[in-house]
Recover the amino acids of this structure.
């Protein structure tokens, strides 16, 4: 998303970067993190479980290690001095203690992110300061980063007080204008105006002397005009999903070395117009200073990209989804290229110049569709390549044998390549750290797989494996193992030898038991064994002191293991679709870190009062049980946002439910409710209330009109009169949210 700016220690939704990894949940093993503008760093675990970031050359980004770095929320600012402290987090994120005020944020705070907080227009009756934020924010003059999305059409002029801002992210609001006071931000280097309502490039940008990175993504502007032409210091411009191919104003920007013109297709009527004008992109042949160019999704009818051949300084090029079969045949094509991304491009071959791409370390030519499979000449790739993504291609067996020449490979993905059997020569890839062989129709692994001693993650999902070779259990560095959707009926006890495992996924097999030796994998953080045939879990969960996620849904469990409540770091538990589970122990109160509990489609008849002690719980799914009542203490679940109670036998709700001030979704359909407690009217954040199929409900308390955020109420097959049902439905339909 952005240039390297700030490292986020944030546990909420992804905001600042995308993890470049072969796996969906890469948080618990070493992997490469994809940053903005083609830059990456390695995230590696250090002693005592700390994490550290490294450049690809092996040098650390920061001298210190950190207790937690969540890759999907990473943003690193290399120019900050080592040891500088900073904070970033949404107002609703768990790193922002509810009792903490902005006034308490000290001078060490370098960054604040409010993007996860829903901010409406400034209410001048309450505050008259910046963007509807507390006035104390304006005193945080040390801030270098501010991210916020606004419903206002204007940025308030008091932004001028944050004079040290280097990055201002206003993406996703309703802005149409910038105030002239923005010129006070004389140190601003990066500005994101994407997904707002600007119909022209704001002329106020010319007032920002240090601005070198600008985002104009998803804006209804048809011309960059003279405003952008005047930004002589601009180095990076992102104009995703543009509605024009008028790139001529950029010719005056001699400092411009990075251009992102990706078309993601959110505005299809505009995209088709650009396809018809795809020849307008040929002006790019004059931008020979470019080092980064993203043209993903830009080509439909254009069959040639020969106009890109003169770009001799390119280091990163993304031509994903281009309708081309070959690259330019220039003998000196892109001599500095380091990353070439050709996802969904049906190449017949690589040009001979590819053999001279000595700096190329990342190549991606994966395909997702049957029609777009291609034969590929691996022989023309340079030997020193480090990251090779060939998902979904038709690779000849003799070409597969050639992979052994890539001695520097660290990441290899062959997902959806019909391999069936790996060649024994795979043991030559000694530096391999991540390997994706999912959907490959494998029936076995080579006996020498244990030679890959640097391997930290392997994905073997959706194959036909029934066992692993003995040497596999000598992979002493393995941290993540994915064996979902295979044919395992039993696991070898040697699985316990993989003592570095932090993530083990075994869903959709035929397992009837787990080996006791699994207890030796004491570093496990994620254990996924759903959709198997387990009746009991013989493990002592007290050994798993770091376990955070346990997924055992769709088994045949008869009870919840008592030792489960000793895994004190658990944050998510899913035991759904185990219909023989009828009892939930009061010991659940011991799991104080729990955030989500899924117990739908079980046989529960009663909940213990101990569940009310889970202060961090935000999701509780109890659908399709046999509950007759809820504990009277339910109101103590102050963090609860979703409560799913559908398909039970409830007749009443406790009055304390009105104390759930963060609750936004309450699902009560298919119960036996007689009346609704008036305390529901106190749920000020409730936006969805489903009461379908409760025929004994004869009326809705008028006090429910106080639920100003309510936008959905399900009243099908309730006992309401047609007139009253129409009243409530019309009330919500006519609200202005």
């Amino acid at each position: 998303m952005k240039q390297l700016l700030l490292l986020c220690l944030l546990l909420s939704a992804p905001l600042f970067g995308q993890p470049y990894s072969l796996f969906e949940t890469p948080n618990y093993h070493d992997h490469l993190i994809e940053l903005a503008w083609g830059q990456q760093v390695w995230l590696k675990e250090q002693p005592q479980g700390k994490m550290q970031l490294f450049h690809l050359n092996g040098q650390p980004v920061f001298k210190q290690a950190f207790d937690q770095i969540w890759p999907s929320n990473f943003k690193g600012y290399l120019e900050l001095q080592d040891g500088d402290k900073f904070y970033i987090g949404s107002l609703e994120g768990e790193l922002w203690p509810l009792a903490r005020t902005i006034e308490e944020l000290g001078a060490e705070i370098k960054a604040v992110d409010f993007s996860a907080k829903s901010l409406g227009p400034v209410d001048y009756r309450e505050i008259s300061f910046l963007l509807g934020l507390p006035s104390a924010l304006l005193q945080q003059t040390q801030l270098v980063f501010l991210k916020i999305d606004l419903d206002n059409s204007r940025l308030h002029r008091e932004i001028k007080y944050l004079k040290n801002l280097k990055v201002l992210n206003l993406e996703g609001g309703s802005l149409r204008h910038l105030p002239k006071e923005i010129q006070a931000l004389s140190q601003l280097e990066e500005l994101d105006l994407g997904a707002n309502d600007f119909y022209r490039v704001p002329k106020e940008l010319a007032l920002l002397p240090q601005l070198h990175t600008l985002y104009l993504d998803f804006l209804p502007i048809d011309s960059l005009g003279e405003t952008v032409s005047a930004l002589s210091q601009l180095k990076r411009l992102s104009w995703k999903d543009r509605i024009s191919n008028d790139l001529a104003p950029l010719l005056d920007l001699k400092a411009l070395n990075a251009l992102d013109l990706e078309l993601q297709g959110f505005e299809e009527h505009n995209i088709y117009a650009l396809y018809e004008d795809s020849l307008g992109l040929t002006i790019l042949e004059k931008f020979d200073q470019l080092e980064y160019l993203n043209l993903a999704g830009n080509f439909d009818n254009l069959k040639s990209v020969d106009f890109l051949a003169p770009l001799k300084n390119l280091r990163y090029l993304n031509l994903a989804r281009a309708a081309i079969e070959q690259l330019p045949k220039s003998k000196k094509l892109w001599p500095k290229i380091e990353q070439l991304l050709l996802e969904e491009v049906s190449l017949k071959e690589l040009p001979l110049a590819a053999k001279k791409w000595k700096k190329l370390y990342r190549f991606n030519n994966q395909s997702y569709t049957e029609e777009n499979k291609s034969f590929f000449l691996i022989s023309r790739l340079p030997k020193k390549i480090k990251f090779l993504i060939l998902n979904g291609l038709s690779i000849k067996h003799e070409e597969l044998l050639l992979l052994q020449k890539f001695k520097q490979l660290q990441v290899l993905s062959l997902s959806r390549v019909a391999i069936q059997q790996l060649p024994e020569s795979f043991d030559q890839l000694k530096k391999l750290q991540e390997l994706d062989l999912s959907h490959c129709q494998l029936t076995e692994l080579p006996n020498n797989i244990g030679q890959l001693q640097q391997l930290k993650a392997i994905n073997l999902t959706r194959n036909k494996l029934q066992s692993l070779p003995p040497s596999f259990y000598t992979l002493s560095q393995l941290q993540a193992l994915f064996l979902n959707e295979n044919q395992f009926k039993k696991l070898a006890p040697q699985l316990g030898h993989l003592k570095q495992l932090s993530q083990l996924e075994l869903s959709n097999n035929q397992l009837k038991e787990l080996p006791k030796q699994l207890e030796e994998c004491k570093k496990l953080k994620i254990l996924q064994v759903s959709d198997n045939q387990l009746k009991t879990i013989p493990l002592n969960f007290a050994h798993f002191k770091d376990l955070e996620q346990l997924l055992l849904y769709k088994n045949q469990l008869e009870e919840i293991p008592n030792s489960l409540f000793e895994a004190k770091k658990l944050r998510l538990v899913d035991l759904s679709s185990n219909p023989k589970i009828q009892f939930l122990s009061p010991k659940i109160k011991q799991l104080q870190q729990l955030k989500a509990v899924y117990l739908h489609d079980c046989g529960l008849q009663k909940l213990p009062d101990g569940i009310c002690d889970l202060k961090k719980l935000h999701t509780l799914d109890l659908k399709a049980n046999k509950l007759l009542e809820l504990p009277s203490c339910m109101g103590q679940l102050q963090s609860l946002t979703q409560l799913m109670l559908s398909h039970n036998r409830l007749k009443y709700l406790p009055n304390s439910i009105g104390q759930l001030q963060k609750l936004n979704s309450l699902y009560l359909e298919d119960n036996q409710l007689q009346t609704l407690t008036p305390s529901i009217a106190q749920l000020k954040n409730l936006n969805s209330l489903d009461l379908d199929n409760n025929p004994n409900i004869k009326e809705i308390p008028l006090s429910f009109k106080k639920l100003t955020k309510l936008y959905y109420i399900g009243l099908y097959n309730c006992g309401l009169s047609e007139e009253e049902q129409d009243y409530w439905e019309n009330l919500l339909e006519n609200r202005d949210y």
About this structure: Residues 1-29, 68-106, 116-134 have pLDDT under 50 and may be disordered.
